[in-house]
Amino acid sequence: MPPLTDGDLYSTLGVSPCASDPEIRSAYKRRALATHPDKGGLAEDFLQVVSAFEILTDTARRRVYDQRHKPKPKHKRKESKADAKAQAKSDAQDPTSDARATHAAAAKPEAQVDFRGLLRKLLGAKKVDVKRVELSALHLQEFLGFLKSETEPGHCDAESGLEEDSEDMLALCDDVSEEAAHEKAVESSQKHAARTTLRGVNWRSPGYMASVGFRHLNVYSHLVHDLDAAIDMHISLVRLRQGVCDQLIAGIDHYQALRHGLDTMDAERRAAGLVKMRLRFNTYYRGKKTPRTQDLDEVVRQWANAEQQFAQAQLARKEKKRKLEQIRAELTQQKQTEREHQKKEKDRQVRQQHIEQLRRWVEEMFQQHLRSRFQVSELPEGLRLASFQGDADCVCAQLHLHGAKQLGPYRRSVKEASRDLLQLSALQQRGDEVALRELRRRDTEAMTAFFMETMK
């Protein structure tokens, strides 16, 4: 006989996955006789055969088993981790990728610049020299003001937009542990016997006895001397179990379900020329078993009572489990919220540090322009750069007149622009309109002087 293969129920019985129910019963009988210890087999092999038979003859359990062991489709290529890493490395090694994105934001020096978008790209870029950012001096001036506002204590990051027991178990009843407890109870009840107790077919001197258990009900056959006959009885009891469970699931009461199953089993055995089985029953719940009896009315009453107790206990367990899961979920959510808050705070601090570093770099670039063009390191308050014939080749005063910003006349030196600011501010004491008229007069005078200068 070929050795049994662990895990494959069809191979255990020696049938194909598309085998019919009669083929499975025939294979079980053949393999059970071959693996039973009384026929020279091993108890472990016999138990594997019994387990395979009980699962494959149950339509629901067989369907779940087939779904779990469905062969996976072949030749389906998935991107490996190595491929993903190689792609990431390739992107990282492209020296123009980050710079390209950065320069694109400032391709036209005099165009309107999205400083928030530029900041986002600079913070997200790797190894990008801020000095390579192509911004005009005017835009450097505006970008510097934007960065200062981003590092103010009251600034809000959020406003900046820069945040970036299983249903399908192979079970005959709702509580698999109860089934396992029954099987353990059947074995422990036979420990006094000299021979090894086997699931499904047991030796009880002076013969063999078949038994099954389901939903807190045990069913036992009469004793026979022939192992072949005992295996036949076990097959009948397994079919009885399946039929009764199907009836209960359909909503039939315990008595009618059991009565229908017994009548069906008797008819099948009679048609096959097999002897009528003399059955005894008992119930079990939480380790307690009732005495075996042939009284169907009594056993059904005990059985219904055990099922009711089990249902109540199951509801209590589910409610307890629900409360525990709720508490666990609340604790998990609390920890997750704390982790997110800590991460957000850490990210905010890191972001502020990067912005401050970036601000210093931009300020240094701006100061270099001021020193080279106007021989000063910073502009006095109220002055700003302006462009006439070139990039930031002038400086002018800036005043607030009639609720709007007004730029004073363009000057070639900081000294002249400072004098404009001082004098126009003094005139503003007499009214915005007075200061505005003087500002326009000076602006016309300055433009005339510039044009005359260019005509020379």
UniProtKB/TrEMBL annotation:
InterPro entries: DnaJ_domain, J_dom_sf, Pre-mRNA-splicing_ERAD. Residues 1-21, 64-107 are annotated as: Disordered. One of its GO terms (cellular component) is spliceosomal complex. Residues 80-92 have a biased composition (Basic and acidic residues). The keyword Cell membrane does not apply. Signal peptide: none annotated. The keyword Nucleotidyltransferase does not apply. It holds the Pfam family DnaJ. Its main location: cytoplasm. Residues 8-69 form the J domain. GO terms for biological process: spliceosomal complex disassembly. It is found in: Cytoplasm; Nucleus. Keywords: Chaperone, Coiled coil, Cytoplasm, Nucleus. Residues 310-344 form a coiled coil. Residues 69-79 have a biased composition (Basic residues). This is J domain-containing protein.
